[in-house]
């Protein structure tokens, strides 16, 4: 939560800071912003390798958090902007893949709560994303940019303190790749199959994110030009609709987790790829709703329809994104836990690029047609995920067998 708070808090202010304080041109500021966001999702690949091969996950989290905090505080100096952004990106590369890769080890292999744990992790992400603009954005706008950046740095230090003080409850560090005994290493053929399965899932998620990431782009534009935002005498600010998604994540997650835990105890919980496919189809249904509303609206559509969109959209999101993160953690080859999580975040990098390319169609076609295309993109991702279900199930079965075998082999610490 605190890491996301610091990241989104700084990101909320960044473009305003560059254009209003540093007097960058809009083109220059947008270029810096775009390169920074792309780098933020790219550095975890390198950080995951460093974590798995040399530092270990706990030290990577601590070192990454320290570097990120340093970067946030460097934002107080106008001349250090690029050094500050580089520090935050480098620290994130170590932090981001190393933290969630520890969640799976908190549970026994047969614990039905393992998959749902990532939904609660996802709640933390959304709480941080919800609070960041309210706290950092308000401080930056009303009291000065550096107060907002400073609050982001303090948030990162708070997360570091919680992680360090709670260290005794964390799972033991997994052996690094170089410390694995030959008998503990996965056969090359099995590892290849596992990697190919995860790569196929990552491609599906990239396609899904092409539609999913439109909420901050074309959906925001539609809220401005295609929506009747009047609620009596009050006009709902268009930015408020963006807060619906994290609010719904926070309140819907416990309900879904309770349902899945009950299903798991009865042996009826859907397989991960089936859940993810359902999530993609749910998001497709949400976009189809907007397509029908926009096509039939006489003038502006009522704001209730956008609220209904976010209900369907968020439900679908909870079936695919935290489930996919959990899947990448569980299927990580021995010694490559952080690298596997980094690959999941790299899918976000590719998905954001695709979303930007698809967003260019907004001005080239009618709004209803655009929403229909996004429904088709999400449905395509759902279809591909449903076709991948047998491969994912085989990989999970092999993973369970491999875990049983490794549990009978003394670890390198023994």
Write the layout of secondary structure elements.
Layout: H1 2-21, H2 26-55, H3 57-74, H4 81-98, H5 114-143, H6 145-165, H7 188-212, H8 218-225, E1 227-228, E2 230-231, E3 234-235, H9 240-265, H10 272-296, E4 301-302, H11 303-330, H12 337-359, H13 367-407
Parallel strand pairs: 1-4
Antiparallel strand pairs: 2-3
Helix pairs in contact: 1-2, 1-5, 1-6, 2-3, 2-4, 2-12, 3-4, 3-6, 4-12, 5-6, 5-9, 5-11, 7-10, 7-11, 7-12, 7-13, 9-11, 10-11, 10-13, 11-12
Describe this structure in words.
With 414 residues, this protein is mostly helical. It contains 13 helices and four strands. A two-stranded parallel sheet has the order 1-4. A two-stranded antiparallel sheet has the order 2-3. A hairpin with a 2-residue loop joins strand 2 and strand 3.
Main features:
414 residues; mainly alpha; disordered C terminus; Growth Hormone, Chain: A; 4 strands; two-stranded parallel ribbon; 2 domains; two-stranded antiparallel ribbon; 13 helices
The largest sheet, given as strand count, sense and whether it forms a barrel, is: 2 strands, parallel
Between the first and last Cα atoms, what is the distance in angstroms? 35 Å
What oligomeric state best describes the polypeptide chains here? Answer: single chain
| Count of all domains | 2
Task: Give the total of beta strands.
Answer: 4
By CATH, the superfamily of the largest domain comes out as: MFS general substrate transporter like domains
Q: From the 3D coordinates, which CATH architecture of the largest domain would you assign?
A: Up-down Bundle
Q: Tell me, rounded to a whole number, the average pLDDT.
A: 88
Helix content, binned percent = over 70%
The dominant shape is globular
Radius of gyration: 22 Å
Structural class: mainly alpha
How much of the sequence is in beta strands? under 5%
Helix count from the secondary structure assignment: 13
CATH topology heading of the largest domain: Growth Hormone, Chain: A
Strand order of the largest sheet: 1-4
What CATH first level of the largest domain would be assigned? Mainly Alpha
**Would you identify the regions where 5 or more consecutive residues have pLDDT less than 50?**
404-414
């Amino acid at each position: 939560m605190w890491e996301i708070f610091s990241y989104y808090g700084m990101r909320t202010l960044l473009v305003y800071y560059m254009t209003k304080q540093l007097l960058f041109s809009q083109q220059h500021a947008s270029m810096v912003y775009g390169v920074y966001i792309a780098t933020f999702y790219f550095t975890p690949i390198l950080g995951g390798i460093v974590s798995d091969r040399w530092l270990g996950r706990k030290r990577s989290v601590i070192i990454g958090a320290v570097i990120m905090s340093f970067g946030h505080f460097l934002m107080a100096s106008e001349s250090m902007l690029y050094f500050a952004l580089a520090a935050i990106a480098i620290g994130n590369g170590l932090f981001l893949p190393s933290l969630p890769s520890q969640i799976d080890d908190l549970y026994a292999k047969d614990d039905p709560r393992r998959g749902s744990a990532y939904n609660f992790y996802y709640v933390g992400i959304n709480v941080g994303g919800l609070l960041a603009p309210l706290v950092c954005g308000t401080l930056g706008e009303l009291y000065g940019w550096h107060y907002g950046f400073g609050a982001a740095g303090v948030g990162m230090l708070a997360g570091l303190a919680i992680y360090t003080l709670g260290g005794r409850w964390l799972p033991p560090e997994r052996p690094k790749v170089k410390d694995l005994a030959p008998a503990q290493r996965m056969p090359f053929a099995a590892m290849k199959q596992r990697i190919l399965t995860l790569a196929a899932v990552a491609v599906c998620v990239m396609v899904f994110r092409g539609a999913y990431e439109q909420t901050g782009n074309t959906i925001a534009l539609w809220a401005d030009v295609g929506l009747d935002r009047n609620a009596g005498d009050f006009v709902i600010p268009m930015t408020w609709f963006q807060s619906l998604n994290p609010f719904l994540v926070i309140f819907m997650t416990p309900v879904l987790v309770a349902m899945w835990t009950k299903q798991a105890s009865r042996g009826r919980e859907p397989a991960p790829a089936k859940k993810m496919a359902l999530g993609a189809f749910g998001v497709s249904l949400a976009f189809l709703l907007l397509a029908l509303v926009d096509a039939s609206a006489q003038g502006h559509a009522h704001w209730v329809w956008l609220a209904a969109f976010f209900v369907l959209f968020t439900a679908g999101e909870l079936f695919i994104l935290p489930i996919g993160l959990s899947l990448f953690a569980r299927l990580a080859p021995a010694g490559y836990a952080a690298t596997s999580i980094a690959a999941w975040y790299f899918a976000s990098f590719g998905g954001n690029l695709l979303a930007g390319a698809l967003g260019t169609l907004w001005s080239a076609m009618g709004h209803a047609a655009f929403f229909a295309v996004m429904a088709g993109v999400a449905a395509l991702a759902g279809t591909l995920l449903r076709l991948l279900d047998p491969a994912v199930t085989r990989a999970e079965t092999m993973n369970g067998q491999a875990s049983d075998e490794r549990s009978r082999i003394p670890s390198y610490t023994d």
